[in-house]
Automatic annotation (TrEMBL), chain A:
GO terms for cellular component: plasma membrane. This is Xylose transport system permease protein XylH. It is a multi-pass membrane protein. The keyword Phosphoprotein does not apply. Part of the binding-protein-dependent transport system for D-xylose. Probably responsible for the translocation of the substrate across the membrane. It comes from the Bacteria. One of its GO terms (molecular function) is transmembrane transporter activity. NCBIfam families: GguB. It is found in: Cell membrane.
From TrEMBL, chain B:
GO terms for cellular component: plasma membrane. It comes from Pseudotabrizicola alkalilacus. Residues 5-242, 261-505 form the ABC transporter domain. Keywords: ATP-binding, Cell membrane, Membrane, Nucleotide-binding, Repeat, Sugar transport, Translocase, Transport. This is Sugar ABC transporter ATP-binding protein.
Amino acid sequence: MSEKSYLGSHLREYGMIMALVAIVFFFTVIVRASIDVDFLSAQNITNLFLQNSYVIIMALGMLLVIVAGHIDLSVGSVVGFTGAVAAVLTVNQGWPVWAVIPACLVVGGLIGAAQGYWVAYWKIPSFIVTLAGMLVFRGSTLWLLNGQNIGPFPRSFQSLSTGFIPDIFGDADQALFGMERLNGTALLIVVVAACIVVFLGLRKRAQDASFGLTPEPAPVFWIRNAIVCGALIFVGYKLAIFRGLPNVVMVLAVLTVIYAFFTEQTTSGRRIYALGGNEKAAKLSGIKTERLVFFCFVNMGVLAALAGMIVAARLNSSTPKAGGGFELDVIAAVFIGGASMTGGSGKIIGVVVGALIMGVMNNGMSILGIGIDYQQVIKGLVLLAAVIFDVYNKNK
Amino acid sequence: MTTLLEMRGISKLFPGVRALDQVNLSVEAGEIHAICGENGAGKSTLMKVLSGVYPHGSYEGDIVYDGETLALKSIADSESRGIIIIHQELALVPLLSIAENLFLGNEVAKAGVINWPLAFQKTAGLLQKVGLNEAPSTIVGKLGVGKQQLIEIAKALAKDVRLLILDEPTAALQENDSQKLLDLMLELKAQGVTQIIISHKLNEIGRVADRTTIIRDGTTVSTLNRKEITEDRIIRDMVGRDMAHRYPDRTPNPGEMLLEVKDWNVFHPDQKDRQMIRNAAFSVRKGEIVGIAGLMGAGRTELAMSLFGRSYGRNITGSVTMGGKPVDTSTVTKAVDAGLAYVTEDRKALGLILEEPILRNISLANLAGIALRGVLNPRREAQVAEDYRRAMNIRTPNVQQKVMNLSGGNQQKVVLSKWLFTDPQVLILDEPTRGIDVGAKFEIYNIMNQLAADGRGIVMISSEMPELLGMCDRIYVMNEGRIVGELSRAEASQERIMAMILNSVGKAA
């Protein structure tokens, strides 16, 4: 197969990365030209991750739900509710942070279980169950907070969102080179990560070849990896010269790797795709479809709780409105990331890129001072365009 | 009597198949004309030509109706001439009332505004005509199949029907509902409605039909008068094709007993009181190919699926033993562990994940076989798929190909591979050659013979009798949820199978 036709048949995967690069490039140029600010400044890159971490985290879980052929509209409300639970426990009850975090995750899991039960075992459409959940947990948040904001959180809880990985190399670098102070840990981590990406890529190529499959053409492989690793190291460098790697980014990276592994390399992950692809065939193949759907919702609840705590920590208070409308950003990220509306397909890496595209656009448009009215219109059109592109590609 | 309908030299081609070949059919005004034939003989195709489902130009031949040559473009076109077909699968909207259903698409309306009082009044009149004592506002879904069938007929009457076509109208009906329906047909005949009935059931044909046309392999065999209609004659005409050497040779060598099913009873999943399988019992030995013959709706698929992890029905009772030991087949996983595999008749809906590649479909039922502690081994998965691709001769550039891009025969081989990878002792193959071409059929037969030679037991469900006769060591005959007979290879013939089916009709109690 020639390089061209290979790219053609994998248009979607490359298209996503290219789109992200193009959007970043676009904003860099426009922001520089119009208000003379560096879009790719260390501070802005840090902000970008802090602002979007919770969307990405929830998108990981939402992918599983959507791959299984369902939807979860309640995640925004669950973010608000678990944030409120965290606030009540920490601020009002004085629980220590190490107890609050698992408690909130359990609350999220229970919420997911309560909804997943009806969807999985009673076959109530997930749209209805989670629409009800959306209302129930928004109301519960108001009730729990008594309509007030609760805060501030202790420093240790805030570090969940605003903390940074400490530099194990101390300030040695500063003394060595007479340049800006560099965070050694951050740099080390991204360099190692880049090496792992290349290593795994090479291994997969070798594997494909040994199966008699058409491997990615070498130039395409190296260009793609150069872009990915270049971006990784660039972002890492920028973070390093600022305050280092935010805790949230580490959580995000670890979760992304875990979920990518789960969806692509484990039997349970595979079964979720099978269930979404053809539930009846999966069932007749001995797959316990109900249990898997239930699991997807529990998992979604736990991730929503995690996101809820990160949001509360970032705002340093729990508000009745926290998480409002998040479900739409999350679902949009999953579909922009290439998941199929009918279930059965979609990749973790696509979802992360999809969420980043949304995030970069949010961030860029805000810097440019574009009003929320236009922002929403543009985001809506991007979502529509991404899905139309998918459907068009499929029918071609 | 005058001729109302004359179909002359009708031929209809589907890609690779000649479904109809020079069929002639002549129906007199005011008669009830029965059409008889095996599954797949072309009865339904012929009726679809007549009702405009296959428009003029997509077939060869002429339809002369009421002295005029028809060039139908659509169903609406045929309906406007009073030709109305009632399909086996009823076309009613279950959540609407009888009145709403009766005038669906044919509303009693002026300028789009429905005159409900008039519609209800007309409905009451029509219901009286078909002898259905229900209020016009009754929701259709709440009525049984028998009553729904009557509503379909009332619907036809609402459209001023002249030629009413009923496609196996009693297939889903209980005995007394069937009788009512046949009475109604005779009444409509007295009112001058010409009718065509497609049926397998000899007693029905004997009761209502004035003449019977028999179709076999897409051609008209004969048209019999009332006096000529006898069971022997109909059976001979229905099945009398020559048996070419379409089946690979094999020396049967049955070994010890594998699967034994006894006293198997299954009820309908939605209609609690409707028993679908009654006291079924059958067995398979090592190296044996056992057939289950029967007409559509005989309960063969229901028997197989209820056995395989209770995938069909409710209130399932009975015993299953494998190699003499009782086994639990109450979930699919347990059934697979017990050594069973069920290859579905509907491979697209129930057998395959069409959007996924071949290798993922093959590993689906035995993911543990390509994984270590829950982590998949892609190398092993590809190797397994590659092995089956070679062994089964699945024609594809590579195993990464999505199964939706494969032909029917190759898809069937993928489903077979999936189940062979679970290493079953007994395979139940439900219509394994449906919808695949002759060459691929021969390959599937060869695979079946190979599996039997390896010491596996095979249960083959098929609606094609020649296939069963050509492949099986023993044949069970099923009808109306019961196993009504068993024939050895030497005893079995199409005539005997058909006679067993026809003789058992209505004897269930």
